[in-house]
Amino acid sequence: MDGDYLMPGTKRGSDELMSHNSPMVTANGTGLSPHHTGNDMNNDAKKVKLDQNAPSRVVHIRSLPPDVTEADIVQLGIPFGKMTNVLLLKQKNQAFLEFQDESAASTMVSYHTTTPAQIRLKQVYVQFSNHKELKTDQTHSFQNATAQAALQAAQAVMVGGTGTEETRTKTTLRVIVENLVYPVTIEVLYQIFCKFGKVLKMIIFTKNNTFQALIQFGDSVSANAAKLSLDGQNIYNGCCTLRIDYSKLSNLNVKYNNDKSRDFTNPNLPSGDPALDQAMQYGGAPGVVASPFATMAGLGMGMGPTPLTAIGATTLGAPPMPMTQFGMHNAAALNVARMGMPMAPQAGSCVLLVSNLDEQKITPDALFTLFGVYGDVHRVKILFNKKDNALVQMAEPHQAQLAIAHLDKVKVWGKQIRVTQSKHAVVQMPKDGQPDAGLTKDFTNSSLHRFKRPGSKNCQNIFPPSSVLHLSNIPPSITEEELEQAFTPHGSVTGFKFFPKDRKMALIQMGSPEEAITALIAMHNYPLSDSNHLRVSFSKSTI
User: Fold this and answer.
1) Distance from C-alpha of 381 to C-alpha of 438, rounded to nearest angstrom
2) 495 near 471, Cβ under 8 Å?
3) In terms of CB atoms within 10 Å, which of 162, 380, 432, 491 comes out highest?
4) DSSP structure string for 420-460
5) Roughly what angle, to the nearest 10 degrees, separates helices 141-157 and 70-77?
6) How many percent of the chain have pLDDT more than 70?
7) What's the CA gap between 131 and 279, in Å, rounded?
8) 502: β partners
9) In sequence order, what are the residues at sequence separation of 6 or more whose Cβ sits closer than 8 angstroms to the Cβ of residue 145?
10) Using CA atoms, how far apart are residues 351 and 390, in angstroms rounded to an integer?
11) Per residue in 48-91, pLDDT tens?
C-alpha cells in the first residue's frame, strides 16, 4: 500500500490507498493511508511508469491547480459523456470523475493519453481509478452540494441536454441582494461565487434602491452551477438574500479595480478615483493617526464582516455569521474555510473619508446625524485645508462598510458625495490650545447613538436613502399639519400618514431622496415637546 502518493509521473493514484469496500474519503478528508510517510513520497517521485489500471467508470485526475473547483473537473469531462458524480480532494490536488458509461471514461482517458489535459492553464494527469464507483460519505454535504450543482449545470449545457440556449451559452450572472442589512462587498461575493468556478470580472452598483452585482464566469458550466445553488440563499443569517438570473451582457467592461468593479484577470488596472487620490494628500492633517492596517480603499480592500469570519455573533456590533451557499452552521462553515475558500482580509479601519461635500453647509453635527443612520459615530473631522473633505470615525469597521454601501455617491445638498475607507484608524481631537475652528468634534458619549444597545430594533431597520422617512417618538398632541409644516423648509412634502395602531410613528414622503436626506439631517432629534425629540430614519415603505 505504501508508496502511492500522487505526483506527476508517479506509479499510482491515491485511490489505490483505499480498499474497494472503504469509504472514498477518510475522516480527515485526505484519503491517504495513516502509514504514508514523507520518505514514501520522495521515493515515489522517482518512479516514472504510470500504472495501467483496468477500465472503470471512474477517472482519476491529479496534479490539479490549487484554485480548482468541481465545475472545472466537470467541464473537463463534458466532451466525453454524461457524468454521475465528482469528488474533489483539494488538499491533495486530486479529483475523481464518475461517468454513466465505462465507454465515456475510456474515451476520456484515451484522448488525454495523447493530448495533455489542462485546467486553469496547468497540465493535469488523467487515468483510470481502481474504484468502480464513487461513494461519497454524508459528512461532506457541502462538497456534495457543490458537486451536484456542477453536474446539473454540465447536463444543462451539454449538446442534447435539457438546458435552454441561455444555460448553454451565458457566463454572466445578475445578482440582486434583497434585505440588505449588512454590507456586501466585492470580496464577500467573490468568496461565495468562486466556489463554483473561475470568476473573471465583477461590478456592483445600486439601482432603484436595490443592491445589485454583475458576475462574469470563465464558462457557462460555472455560471449555471452558481445560479442553481445560490439563488434564494442568504449570505448572512436571515438577511442579504441572493436573487440570481442571467445578465444580457456577455462580457463586462471593467476599466478600474476599486470598491465598485474588479477585473480579477488584470490586477494592474488603476483605481480610477482622482478625488480619492487627491484627498489622500491631506492624510497627514493634524489630529489623524495612520492605521497599522492601512489599505487602499480605492482598491476595494476596505474591511467589514466577511463570510466565514464573524462566527456566531448576533448583534450589529458583531454581525451574525455569514452563511455559505447552503446555509451551513458554524462547524460546517469552518470546514469550508479549511477547504481553501479565499478569505478577505479581516483588519479594517473604522474611519471613513467623505469627499465632495458642500463647504458652506457641512458641519460635524450634520455628518454625525447622517452617518449615524448606519452606525454609531464617535468622531468627525472636517479637513482644515480642504473643507469639502471630512473624516468620520464609526464605532465598528462593519458600520463603516455599511455607511459606504448606502451613502457612497448619493446627493447631499446638490453634490454627489464620495464615501470610502480611510487609511487612518483613529481621528484624534486637537491638542489643548490648538486652534480648530470647530471642525473636529467628539460624539463618543452622545445620547443619540442608535445602536449602543445590543439587539436594538434599529439594527433590523437599516435602509438606503429614500424619499420616504420613518418618524417616531411623536407626542399625542402633535398633528399631521404641524409635522408637515416642520418638514416643509427642507423640501416638498408629497405624502404623510400615521401608523394606524401606533400614532407615535408616521411616514412622511419628501419630493426626492436628496430632500429626504436634507430633512433627516435637520429634523432628527427635533424637539416636538419638552420630553419628546423626533427620531427620523429612512424607510423602505411607500405611502
Assistant:
1) 9
2) no
3) 380
4) EE-SEEEEPPPPTT---TT-EEE-TT-TT-SS-STT-GGGG
5) 40
6) 71
7) 62
8) 499
9) 229, 325, 326
10) 10
11) 344 467 899 999 999 999 888 888 888 888 878 889 999 999 88
Amino acid letter, 271:
S
Contacts of 168 (CB under 8 A, 6+ apart): 156, 157, 161, 220
Kindly give the interhelix angle for 141-157 and 220-230, rounded to the nearest 10 degrees. Answer: 130
Q: Tens digits of per-residue pLDDT, 9-33?
A: 333 444 433 333 333 333 333 333 3
**C-alpha grid cell, residue 539:** 424607510
Q: d(Cα 51, Cα 414) in Å, to the nearest integer?
A: 73
pLDDT beyond 80 at 519? yes
**What domains are defined for the chain?**
14-157 (3.30.70.330), 170-270 (3.30.70.330), 278-306+344-442 (3.30.70.330), 465-538 (3.30.70.330)
Which helix (DSSP H) or strand (DSSP E) does residue 403 occupy? helix 397-407
Helices 186-193 & 220-230 angle (0-180, nearest 10): 100
Could you read off the pLDDT of 374-421 as tens digits, one per residue?
Answer: 999 999 999 988 999 999 999 988 788 889 889 999 999 999 999 998
Entry field: residues in the chain: 543
Task: Let me know: does 254 contact 201? Beta carbons within 8 Å.
Answer: yes
Buried b (16+ CB within 10 A) or exposed e, 281-295: ebeebebbeebeebb
Cell triple for 13: 493514484
Distance between CA 368 and CA 358 in Å, rounded?
A: 15
- pTM to 2 decimals? 0.46
Q: Which three cell numbers stand for residue 447?
A: 445620547
Query: b/e map of 221-234 (b: 16 or more CB within 10 Å)?
Result: bbbbbbbbbbeebb
Facing residues of 172 across strands?
Answer: 216
User: How many Cα atoms within 13 Å fall on the side-chain side of residue 144?
Assistant: 11
Task: Please give the single-letter amino acid code of residue 144.
Answer: N
**89 strand-pairing partners:** 94
The answer to whether 65 and 119 are in contact (CB under 8 A) is yes
Sign for the pseudo-dihedral over CA of 506, 511, 517, 522: negative
